[in-house]
Amino acid sequence: MRCAESAHDFAAVWDIATPSRPGRLPGVSMAGFGARTRELFDLDVVPYPAVTVAVDLSDGPIAVDDNSSGRQNGSVVVGLAASGVRGRGRDIECLQVRLSPVVAHAVLGVSSELGGMVVSLDDLWGRDAARTQEQLRAAGSWDDRFAIAEAALVRRHEAGRAVEPEVAFVWGQMVTSLGGVRVERLAAEVGWSRKRLWSRFRAQIGLSPKRAAQLVRFDHAAHRLAAGHSAAQVAAEIGYVDQSHLHRDVKAFAGVTPTGVAVAPWLAVDDVAWAAPEYLSKA
Fold this sequence. Notes:
Residues 164-264 form the HTH araC/xylS-type domain. This protein is α+β, with helices and mostly antiparallel strands.
């Protein structure tokens, strides 16, 4: 069984495909993953400021566990800030789509219900999930798969319900500031009370504004740690009050220390699969 010997070892056993052209839908990033070995993989997934759709294209099902939803087999949707997410499978092949929570609200039809949860794609898309998965399996190339997935996302996005402009603006400001903006200032900018912003944002994004900003900041910190920067450097650069506050956020989101995040195997493939992540756009 292959666990996390090192980030370098983990990155070396994957074939990673990315779209050859920009997508039609802002706020969406896609990547294809194929294991180069038939060993059993068992790994922790670091939380991201995106809703993740993982379409299982393997011969055997991928099992995904988390702290609150139990085990799901096959294609899943991972909500914002889901903790304790762990993937397990052999001879893995999958298409992963990361959605800005602004886009996810329309594409998936739910938001608040997904916060911190892992659910089956079948539960959200019904028969459309099976049809899309069959088309993806039959496709002759990753570019064909990306086109099929994009068409499904665009179709559902056009039929879905957009978030309120104020909510989209607040999310965009969080992304631009790397999570460093004060929620009270954002409420004043959109002309809402703090209570109204809290309620509308949580209902449409799936997290409270404060938690969402913390997640964006954690994501930036995690990648800085993985790039070799010390915890003290990262805390100072990103605006944490001190190193203990960085440690607290990392522990809350990832369940490990900053040192553990720095060597997290899944982060080793991020710069390849998500070099310019659209899911962190303002969309």
